[in-house]
Amino acid sequence: MNDMTRLENALDVTEAKISARGVQVFYGDTQAIRDVDVEIADKTVTALIGPSGCGKSTFLRCLNRMNDTIESCRVEGTILLDGEDIYDRRVDPVQLRAKVGMVFQKPNPFPKSIYDNVAYGPRIHGLARTRAELDEIVERALRRAALWTEAKDRLSEPGTGLSGGQQQRLCIARAVATEPEVLLMDEPCSALDPIATAQVEELIDELRQNYSVVIVTHSMQQAARVSQKTAFFHLGNLVEFGETGHIFTNPEDPRTEAYITGRIG
Amino acid sequence: MTDRGAPARRTQSSLFAADRRTARRNAVEARFRLYGLLAICVGLLMLAVLVVTIVTRGTGAFQQSFVTLTVELTASKLDKSGTRHLEAIKKVSTFGYAPLLAAAFETKAADLGIDTPLNPKEMADLLSKDAAATLRDHVLAHPEQIGQSVEFRFLANSRVDGYLKGRVSRDSIADDKNISAEQLDFVDALVAAGVITKTFNWDFIFGADASDQRPEAAGMGVAMLGSLAMMLVVLVLSLPIGVAASIYLEEFAPRTWWTDVIEVNISNLAAVPSIVFGILGLAVFINYMHLPMSAPLVGGLVLTLMTLPTIIISTRASLKAVPPSIRDAALGVGASKMQSVFHHVLPLAAPGILTGTIIGLAQALGETAPLLLIGMVGFIASNPPDSIAGALLSPNSAMPAQIYEWAKRADPAFYERAWGGIIILLAFLITMNTVAVILRRRFERRW
Questions:
Q1: How far is A187 from chain B (nearest CA, A)?
Q2: Which of A20, A51, A104, A128 could be A134's S-S partner, Cβ–Cβ 3.0 to 4.6 Å?
Q3: Per the CB < 8 Å rule, is A110 touching B329?
Q4: Is the minimum CB–CB distance between A168 and chain B shorter than 8 Å?
């Protein structure tokens, strides 16, 4: 029975990896997000854009329950990952975060070696039984993050010694090492120079083949370059959500148009 | 119109000459720097005065005058029965040994051809009151030497010692019944002959305290062991309790009215005078729990109470200093709260925790007031403890309490030892702080 319903669910959501319905977020008494409905498709890049303070990062952090660490934060509505409500009481956020990885705005490698940075997730989740397996996982993750050629000879050096762009790719490698299904990226390029940004963007495009990626960005060009779907947030509301090409060329809402043409922001 | 006026005004001021406002601002800044420099100079001056005073007054304690004498262990006096039975030899008290010392001095004076009006007993008064006991202990340990002549190094009397160090002068002995000008003449002759010498005094560092009459024999060693035992108790209790409390408060506890109250009270505890902890220890540990009086265990418990707030405050500060991005990173890859704390936050905070702990320990090491109340002063810690349990439970003193005790006693020779004790205590504190700095550097480099 159970398996049957699971199967149905799975069939049901081949389109949507994550579906958020009526999400409201409060910080204490102030409401940060109002009635957000978003369907995030598998193996696509979804960009969340909008002016500062519009709630896009807050929404992103709802998707792996990072908001739980903020005491005053309260989330209402439902967010389904493969049809399962991630805010259900039975869900352990730790388990959820293994499935929904996250890359932060500022590169934040652990002050450990490059190897240990990548191996940390697999270690705590018991993904490798032997050292050789772990080595393989680390290599695969670093390759996916396009860091292997640069880092393979200095795996034992501290990750904090890398350049900013390399650090961010290391963080991406660390996030993909646990084999997540969804990768959340909170302005991953805002601390990087244009060259490093280009590398990370290229990387995001490659990651799309294996994961569904949700990216928050301030740069509309970046959203246009890397994403297939775009959601525009304004003052805590989801104003418009659709195909990236459609949003940027033919926005339906005047606010979206105003934002992408630079009149609000 | 205004456009024309503006360039004209601008040409009047030159970058090469400071205008009035700038000159005034620079003067204020220069004055402020001067005040700062002055403040630092005053601080350094105080430090220099402190160090110079301590060193000049205290170094004397590390040297001690010894008299080298050949004593004939006369069989007829020490073993009247002639059987060499230890029990029979033990019957002779230190009074029985005193004549031997006098006789030894007499022969020494005769050998060296020193002309002195002193009688042999007065000569023997130059020795410490310890000397007869030293001799007796030696004989009891080596009864086979009875009948032979053996060379000994006896402690000189504190007056003689003071005379050699310049503390006692011929003027100052006018009212002193313990030593006479003739005895000093004799001392001069013995020093010239090399019988009385001043050497480094290991017994001051490793020896036990001595009674009022024998300042020359007093040492810091047993009190040092007392302090060590207390520090052990403090470390074993306050580090785990303090760190666990800090981690809970900083990382896990919800921000509620209760945690606020706890926080405020921990800060308040850090400011509570140490004597309050002392009287608490007296009431709770000794009167209520009936732990032994004067025991380093009780001292350690009291000092633990005192050190805990220091450790908690410094641990929380260093936990807070760990960037939140590290916690996010750990949580982001699916680490549990506890994993993120123990794998990432705690190692980063460790240098700070370590430093806080060592500084807390150093503070506890120098603490005297609470020890007064639990009875770690006012008696003579004459025997080193024989086991770890003994070190914790048998009455002992501690370094600062010992210093206080010495400073209280009448004989100026004890006063010198109090300063010497302060040098030892400071050496410990400086060592601990240096270790803290070195450990912190090393840890930080690793991360």
A1: 14
A2: A128
A3: yes
A4: no
Residues in chain A with pLDDT < 70? 1-15, 264-265
> What are the extents of the domains in chain A?
3-108+188-260
Q: What is the pLDDT of residue A137?
A: 93
B333–A66 C-beta distance less than 8 A: no
Interatomic CA distance for residues B343 and B337, integer angstroms: 10
* Residues spanned by the domain of B114: 59-200
The continuous run of DSSP H or E covering B339 comes out as: helix B337-339
ipTM of the complex: 0.85
Superfamily of domain A3-108+188-260 in the CATH hierarchy: P-loop containing nucleotide triphosphate hydrolases (3.40.50.300)
Looking at the partner chain, which of B331, B334, B339 has a beta carbon nearest the beta carbon of A69?
Answer: B331
Cβ–Cβ under 8 Å, residues B319 and B246 = yes
Question: Considering CB atoms only, which of B254, B328, B339 is closest to A108?
Answer: B328
Flag if B326 and A178 touch (Cβ within 8 Å).
no
pLDDT (average), residues B178-204? 87
For the stretch A202-231, pLDDT in tens is 889 888 888 899 999 988 889 999 999 999
Question: Which among B138, B166, B200 is the end of a domain?
Answer: B200
DSSP-derived secondary structure letter, B77 = H
Residue A258, judged by CB atoms within 10 A of its CB (0-12, 13-18, 19+), counts as middle
Interface mutation vs chain A, best among B257, B325, B331, B333, most A CBs within 10 Å? B333
Burial class (CB in 10 A: 0-12, 13-18, 19+), A11: exposed
A171 in contact with chain B, both atoms CB, cutoff 8 A: yes
Of B169, B200, B231, the position where a domain reaches its end is B200
- Say whether both B225 and B332 belong to one domain: yes
Residues whose CB falls within 8 Å of the CB of residue B200, separated by 6 or more in sequence, listed in order: B62, B63, B64
Q: Report if residue B305 sits inside a domain.
A: yes
Give pLDDT tens digits for B82-105: 777 888 888 888 888 888 888 888
DSSP summary character for residue B284: I
Which pTM value belongs to this model?
Answer: 0.81
Provide the pLDDT for residue A25. 92
Residue with tokens 């940004």: A197
CATH of the domain at B265: 1.10.3720.10
Give me the residue from A69, A120, A158 closest to B333, CB to CB: A120
Residues B278 and B148 in one domain: no
Q: Is residue B259 part of a domain?
A: yes
